[in-house]
Predict the structure.
Amino acid sequence: MGWYLADLASGVVHMLFDYRPCPPDKGLNELFFYTGSRESEDYLALVRDRMASVSAFDRLVYDFKNHHPRPMALGRRPVWRLIGSSVVLAALPMSLLLNIAAWVLPVPGWLVATALALIVGGAFAQYFHGSLHRDDNPALIGWMRRLRLLMSPHAHQLHHDTLQRDFATNCGWSNPLINRVFNALRAQGYLVDAGLVPGP
């Protein structure tokens, strides 16, 4: 249950961040559509300038959009860049709450196990996502894929083919549910394609 919930969280966040519009008039579209070398000093200076003008949350949202045309860049990022926000915003607070609960209440073992699986799966969700866009992964990733605890790059490619399905990036168990939620929201006029790229 905990691993399923972590997968579900990865998919819901992915879906919402993919389609959430970036703040307008911040020049993020210049970064997104930049045609020169992304290792040039000109581009790196532009990144520093544009990212300084938006919140940390909006930088995360931009990263999700920027990932689609350049998926392999995610696999080259260092571990802390991938998991830092998940650890600080979710895993650390949840683990502290779990410790406090276990200290003051008789928390059943099954609930502790569920919470631990959720915390670990949630904390490493972007790392697992990055591993889908990297050829050289630790042996543990391969073992977890063989056990179906992590999805395969082929399964994740279904998301990149349309950007309208299979948003979960851990194991994909929750994708049938998330796909139904996505389709219902889209039918109501939410999650429109304009949100997939930064506007002017």
